[in-house]
Amino acid sequence: MGLTDVLFGRKKLAKAQQEKLFAISTARITLETELGLKPTGDAAVVFKPLSAAEFVRAENELQELLDSVAQESHSKVERRGDEFGFEWLIVRDNDLEDLVNAANLVASELANAGFGQQLLAAPFRFSGGKNPVYFVYGFKTASFWPFVPMGDGQERDNAEELELKAKLEKELPIEQDLTRWLALFDAPI
């Protein structure tokens, strides 16, 4: 950030970092055997679209990108918006390694298409507990955090999240700043 950015209150968005996304597939054995968590075959890449005019221009390119990723990875890829204006590129594949590869390919293609600074997160859904468990990869911090929503409301199981953090810190790059653990309530995956 330069002096003019400071003076005029402008911030540059952090560049997306994808290199540690693959850690979730190496943590699979611990997730399944020690924690009883199984991948559901659902993941997503969440990003903030560009301004309306830029997004309309990129719309066709984005659809072509999704079609090519689906064809190349043999995964199903669909797109949904949420109430906060974020786009969810949902990836479905029953094999965790293929799911991670497809999510990485989506993120890479988005970055190559100029959406790199808009990449927010990549949540991966797991089952096996009393509630669904998401391991969310933050593109800006290159780290994961657990998210465990409870019930139908906007509550989360903080105790289970902290327990998962403690058990997986050696396996995954875990975000240490708990204030950065974004909640993804009403996630479409």
Keywords:
189 residues, alpha+beta, 6 helices, 37% helix, 24% strand, disordered N terminus
Q: How would you sum up this structure, described in words?
A:
It is a single chain. This protein is α+β, with helices and mostly antiparallel strands. It has 6 helices and 8 strands. Strands 2-3-1-4-5-6 form a 6-stranded antiparallel β-sheet. A hairpin with a 4-residue loop joins strand 7 and strand 8. Helix 4 runs antiparallel to helix 5. It is globular. The N terminus is likely disordered.
Roughly how many Å apart are the termini? 36 Å
Q: Label the structural class.
A: alpha+beta
**Mean pLDDT value:** 85
How many separate helices? 6
**Physical arrangement of strands within the biggest beta sheet:** 2-3-1-4-5-6
Following the backbone from N to C, one meets helices and strands in this order, namely: HHHEHEEHEEEEEH
Describe the global form: globular
Question: Would you count the extended β strands for me?
Answer: 8
- Percent of residues in helices comes to 25-40%
Give the biggest sheet: 6 strands, antiparallel
Percentage beta strand: 15-25%
Report low-confidence residues grouped into runs of 5 or more: 1-14
